[in-house]
Design a protein that fits this description.
The structure holds 2 protein chains of 2 kinds. By secondary structure, chain A is α/β, with parallel strands linked by helices. Chain A has 16 helices and 11 strands. By secondary structure, chain B is α+β, with helices and mostly antiparallel strands. The chains are: A alpha/beta, B alpha+beta. Chains A and B meet through helix 1, helix 5 and helix 16 of A and helix 1, helix 8 and strand 14 of B.
């Protein structure tokens, strides 16, 4: 298949691997921030190909994983209201709340619908005027513009029964917080799709302030290995900077239009991240101008008290301090079909990726 | 475990497996059921018979490459055939929603008759129930079937003769059925030319069984896809499995759709694919035989049984990396068959 096979080419992969082996001298740890990267790395078996000098660590870039359990609890509370239809991306449906999941609520009669785009949610809203459609907006700079489009369109078309429940977050505060917390890192493999929206400028403090390299990568094996090679060069030459390995998608200035939409609909707020706690100005809140479409303001709901599971080390795994296999619950009490922590549920979660592809 | 039935319990993956083990097998407990083969092997008047049943709830009921009727015949015929038996007789039971179009029902029944003719089996008994509007979705069909089983084939369903060195063969591309049904769904306004691979495999399998006595195991890779078959095959066994991803064929249009929607073809349903474990010395011969049949033209050796990582299926990825193949957890796509 064009635009995919070229980036999964075995010969090219072998050449890159040989190149990395030649250049890599220092013992280094690289963090792939994005959950999509984690999945791809495990799915293609990339750790198996890398030299012993390079350790890949999964980062906090799985939106479902870093979200507060309270968010799921509130989504469940919305789902239990008779006049609400929940529209959500599929990943959220099995994430455990304190006592239930959206999946279980659906089995008990709640109207929970999986959508592939916010536009599907708008359609549901148009087709069900007597219901309130709550769209669960989760994700980083990648999915947030989609939610922004939903709000802007709903506002323009007068679809008054469309509400966004935002858990959107932005990436850079978490990347800096990790280093501030003392996580041992030598460089970041930065998320491709986030960067396609934001451009490179959001990362520039990382080499400046922390002397760490940042290379933006795509999601195919060749992309990832190229990014790893570029980081290895930076580290060996002690020349940290922001570079793009994913040039076919990411422009230095990013997607200006998407940035404008984000700016139009959202403002920054302090937000809670699993494992990292509250990070200043790291979450996206719907601006007052669009409060008519903000579920948090328009649909009051009583949320059950949040209960976190004991023993789950999701937090430390998200910080890259521990590996999923270090968790006592991993593959025993915690499995994809019976998950304890969100990292096991989300397809981008590091525990899920390790369980599926690398649990032996 | 969840206190209510989730869609995932019908996925054919891990949740279904647990439900079968922890509920049905627990209470129905008997030696035949415990084998958990695609078809039960039973003895009647000192003759071996394979006996199986399956229900079909696919949505939509008509899809490119087939319909619920064709699926209901092929599904049961295939469960019988992969057990090493010659499918003979089927039953057909219909649960129909009040108000369902008679013309559509006739189209389905005609399609079943046509498929039965192709397979060379007879539908000899049946039942009809009609429920109030909204109490089922259009039409659900159950088919049961029996097949004659030669004594030399009674272990094929169990796979008890599998040995390291055996080759793993599949008769063509994977993931066609699941993606054809997905593309036909209204909520996704997709226009594709993806067709379901839905087909009766009994003749193809019969031809292979006729040229060798080295077929050690067969299973049709339906819900849960090829990955689930491989996991179940290796689970708790004293051998491992190695699959070469580069040998797996996926039609371009199917791959495209999988990439777009984030599905892994390994987990997507097929309705005309049989996974065979064949003794090394006859693997090429079986491959040649399969390729002569239209339904096996793209048959390929995709891996082998090994003496390592016992109980686990491993994949050598297209780029030469290695990883395990895991069973599907939860529901990838509801109402696929």
């Amino acid at each position: 298949m064009k635009f995919i096979d070229e980036y999964r080419d075995k010969d090219l992969v072998q050449k890159l691997v040989e190149h990395i082996k030649r250049v890599s001298k220092k013992q280094i740890s690289l963090m792939e921030v994005c959950g999509g990267h984690t999945m791809s790395i495990q799915k293609f078996g990339i750790p198996f190909l890398l030299p012993g000098t390079i350790k890949l660590i999964s980062g906090p870039g799985c939106p479902v994983c870093v979200s507060d359990r309270k968010y799921i609890d509130q989504a469940i509370a919305y789902a239990r209201l008779d006049d609400v239809i929940i529209a959500t991306y599929g990943d959220l449906i099995r994430v455990p709340g304190s006592t239930s999941t959206l999946d279980q609520e659906k089995a008990s009669g709640a109207d929970v619908r999986i959508v592939y785009s916010v536009l599907d949610a708008l359609k549901i809203a148009r087709d069900n005027l007597n219901k309130k459609i709550v769209f669960l907006g989760i994700g980083f700079e990648t999915t947030a513009p989609g939610s922004a489009v939903g709000v802007i369109n709903a506002n323009m078309e007068g679809i008054s029964n469309f509400y966004l429940f935002s858990s959107h977050k932005i990436m850079p505060p978490a990347m800096e917080a990790l280093i501030d917390e003392g996580v041992k890192l030598d460089g970041y493999i930065a998320p491709g799709h986030v960067s396609a929206i934001t451009g490179t400028s959001i990362y520039k403090r990382i080499p400046e302030k922390y002397r760490l390299g940042v290379v933006i990568s795509g999601f195919e094996p060749v992309d990832l290995l190229k990014a790893i090679l570029m980081l290895v060069y930076q580290i060996e030459k002690n020349d940290p900077k922001v570079e793009i390995a994913y040039t076919r998608v990411v422009k230095p200035e990013g997607n200006i239009k998407a940035q404008q939409m984000l700016e139009e609909v959202f403002e920054l707020r302090d937000d809670w991240w699993r494992g990292l706690g509250v990070l200043p100005k790291s979450g996206l809140k719907v601006r007052e101008k669009y409060a008519d479409h903000d579920a948090e303001i328009q649909i009051p709901v009583k949320v059950e008290p949040t209960r976190e599971d004991k023993g789950c080390i999701c937090g430390e795994i998200l910080k890259g301090i521990k590996n999923p296999k270090d968790c006592k619950l991993f593959a025993k009490a915690c499995t994809p079909e019976n998950p304890v922590g969100a990292c096991m549920v989300s397809h981008e979660g590091s525990c899920h990726a390790y369980y599926r592809y690398n649990r032996d | 475990m969840s206190k209510t039935i989730l869609l995932g319990h019908g996925s054919g993956g891990k949740l279904s497996n647990d439900l079968i083990k922890d509920l049905f097998v627990k209470y129905f407990s008997n030696d035949i059921l415990k084998e958990q083969t695609d078809a039960a092997v039973i003895q009647v008047a000192s003759k071996n018979l394979a006996f199986t049943t399956d229900s079909f709830v696919v949505d939509p009921i008509f899809f490119p490459g087939g319909d619920i009727g064709k699926l209901a015949v092929a599904g049961t015929v295939n469960d019988l055939a992969v057990s090493g038996s010659k499918p003979l007789f089927l039953s057909a039971s219909f649960i129909i929603e009040e108000g369902f179009s008679l013309a559509d029902l006739e189209r389905i029944v005609k399609s079943m008759a046509q498929e039965a003719k192709v397979a060379g089996i007879s539908i000899v008994t049946g039942d009809t129930k009609v429920v109030n509007r909204g109490k089922c979705d259009k039409v659900f069909i159950n088919t049961s079937g029996v097949g004659g089983l030669l004594p030399k084939h009674i272990n094929i369903g169990k796979g008890s003769n599998i040995q390291p060195g055996d080759k793993i063969i599949i008769n063509g591309t994977i993931a066609d059925h699941g993606m054809a049904v997905m593309a036909a769904r209204e909520e996704l306004s997709f226009t594709t030319d993806i067709k379901s691979d839905c087909a009766c495999l009994n003749h193809l399998i019969g031809e292979a069984l006729a040229v060798t006595d080295q077929i050690r195991f067969m299973r049709d890779a339906t819900r849960g896809g090829l990955a689930t078959v491989l996991c179940e095959l290796a689970e708790k066994k004293n051998f491992g499995i190695e699959i070469n991803e580069a040998a797996l064929l996926v039609n371009e249009n199917v791959r495209g759709m999988c990439e777009l929607l984030g599905f892994d073809p390994l987990y997507v349903a097929n309705e005309g694919k049989v996974v065979m474990v064949v003794g090394k010395k006859d693997a090429e011969k079986v491959l040649e035989t399969l390729r002569k049949n239209e339904l096996g033209q793209k048959a390929a050796i995709i891996g082998e049984v090994v003496n390592e990582h016992l109980g686990r299926a491993w994949l050598t990825t297209v780029i030469g990396g290695k990883r395990i193949i895991d069973m599907l957890a939860g529901e990838q796509l509801p109402r696929i068959c």
